[in-house]
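Hi R.,

Here's the chain you asked about this morning:
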Amino acid sequence: MSMLVKKYCRLALLPLLMLALFSCSKQQPAVQESELSLSLVCEQDFLSSKAGEGSIAVDCLHYFVFADGESTPLSGQTIFDPTGTNNLKLRLFKDKAYVLAFWAQNNASGYDISASGKVSFPETPASNDSKLDAFYATVPITGGQGSLSVSLKRAVAKVSVSLSKALTSAASSSLSFDSAHKSFSLLDGEVSDDLSTLNFSPASCPGTQNVAYAYLFAPQNQAHSCTMTLKVFGSSALSTTLNNIPVQRNIQTNITYNN
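And here is the predicted structure, written out as tokens:
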């Protein structure tokens, strides 16, 4: 074949090659990102509550982006105001499925948060500690939505103990529970199945009659029953064990002990 014919054949094939590449690019368009603007607020009250036990101590937000088909979420952290609206911006791929998870806590609470979005209860929690209050939300979303409002609910139950008669010398108190959930999954909002004893170390009583409270992980849609031991320290010491104490997420259980 002459050099002229070879050159002609190459020139004739070039448009066909460009057409094939153009067809492929049309079939596989570039994936586009879009910005998601989030407005996050914190629900102030328990579903069942008792007033007068302090304000919400949350000051930090952890967020996780679970992408469909990917095992490790992207995560970040920012400050959080529990009394106002908090703004956050994320960049997501359009038309891709995600689950967004949020956890709001006090930075000094002692909760351990893993890279996979598992929250573990502090190993040595204190009684009467408002910093153990915590909030969460889990939201499925498809990338491309421009804005989203999210309301964070309590991730914990609260048990509050009062006495029928005030102890004028009540100085400190402690609580312990025979069966407690120790971890919480942000991806599905479920507590762990394993149960173990949870002891809260002594701390100053909130008052002489309202003597103790504690926050616990608990199931969302049903009450978990446990045995609780209360100890009050001072010149008029008190110790008692109470059975069948119900704890449920976002519910405050109020107990009055007849002393």
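One quick note: DSSP finds one helix and 17 strands in the chain.

Cheers,
M.
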